[in-house]
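Q: Could you write out the predicted structure for this multi-component system? I'm mainly interested in how the pieces pack against one another.
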Amino acid sequence: MIGAGALRGRAPAALLFGAFALAPVVVRDAFFLDSLVLILMWGALSGAWNIAGGYAGQVSLGHAAFFGIGAYSAALLGTRWALSPWLGLAAGAVVSVLAGCVLGYLSNRLKGPYFALATIAFAQVLLIVASRWRGFTQGSEGIPVPFRPGLWTLGVDRRGWLYLALGLALTVYLVEVYLESSRIGYQLAGVREDEDAAEALGIATRRLRVWSISASAALTAVGGALWAQYVGFVDPFYVFSIDLSIRFALNAIIGGLATALGPFLGSLLITTLETSLRATFAGVRAGFTGVYLIVYGCLLIVVVRFAPDGLSGLAARRGRRDSSRARA
Amino acid sequence: MQALPQLVVSSLLLGGIYALIAVGLTLIFGVMRVVNFAHGEFLMLGMYLAFWAFTLWGLDPYVTLVVEVPLFFAAGLLTYALVVRGVIGASHNVQIFTTVGLSIVLQNLALVAWTGDFRFVRPWEASVVLHAGTAAFNVSQLIACAVAGVLTAGLVAFMKWTHTGRVMRATAQDRDAATLMGIDTDRVYRLTWAMGTAAVGAAGVLVAPLYSVYPTAGLQFVLLAYVVVVLGGLGDMLGALAGSLVVAAVEVAGSYLFGTAWKEVLYFVLFIAVLVLRPAGLFGQRGAEMLGA
């Protein structure tokens, strides 16, 4: 699967994830741990988005659809049939793979902006269904997810959550590493860079695209299910929102598209920014929670314009410059 | 079929408004090949302009329109210079995320400045109901549709018969050839963006009395406008006009048959179906949807 070569140059990642793993041993502060859990979760979700949006070049603005499917699966199975969120998580992943196949089919017929628009419409349809189908989803009221202590019911403390989120983050990270160093990863890069050439070389471009979107969808649903259990409430207008879809893409773009660590770096920056700006402005005036989103939007405009390879790209450029200087 | 006259009248009135929203978008999409995700935010800002002019100075939205056009034209020039100009030749992804970023910024500026409260503009004409046979509608709807119709027709005529319009169409057809003919494409794009912005801002002012005003009000309209634009064929203004009537008819008939709660599902499904089955639009030729560089 992942050879030794694939792990070369992964020291920053080992350092980052190692620090997260050790944090609960050192710090007990609930607010701080909560921030770490969120950084890991949003990082993992952006990493999942990165599989389709970065590695396969299928920019989706509707990934909230899969997140919502995961969140609702966990919440509905938990509240209606008192089943474990682990089962909800699995069910969400399966449903998302099916939905991912639908989007994958669309991606084979639609290019660039059309695909992005179709994914928005796709998530909007699910949002409307979830918020109007009162008999099944409780409509726009949303679903409170009960806290039931125990690992099987995912009722664990913050430290437990940190390791759960870390597990998800590592899983996503390893999938990304696999995509950077395996045959299938190179094929995906071929599809992204020049589809005609890839097809001429005998790569099954259509199947690959469906595969990448489905894998991305399944991981996003798993993240959604865990998130629902962590936060304890599923609100259709949040879990299916376009804002959420943009957030997944934003972390990955700011960190570096189609890089394994990029989404996590993006999440580290954005989530920290969000938490601190929220804490600063929350008391001032109700509307000021929007301030961090203004910063967010400006950052997005500036990054895609001046640093399209994101933080990882900047680091790589600096690294090259240093090494060339060392040689000279 | 007692309801038929009402359905027809409602579709026509709604279609006129959708046309004005979509015409600005199809102009930008067609000439500049930029997918503008911030289009709905300018609509929202137009709605707020109508709201504040009405609340603070008692100005009727149709008076506000006179101020709106130059104001939004200038706002268009400004956003073009600051944000759009740098990504004109860039990849679709860069353009998508740039306009998404612009949309986030505008939405949240509105949220911070004016809070997320739902606001209402209710001038006197919004409560005057007219009857035509068995169909009923209010004066605001009629004025919005009529003014939108005039503005849309004006834009179409501008594109067809003026020199600048011809230059814009030439740039839309083939940017390189246009440049070789000595056309200043940067100027064309600047003008296109500003005109599209002014048009959608006008639509915002006109619909303010009909819908509630809030920071994310633009989203539903922008998605709808894309449905219209794709249906009508990219950059095709008359197509957009026809597309908006189709979408309005689907919406009105859908609300009548399934209830208003589900009408949006109907046009998103229609949207995806059109994208998949007829990506060149209802009347377009196959291949016309390919976005040239």
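A: Regarding packing and overall arrangement: The longest helix of chain B spans residues 4-32.
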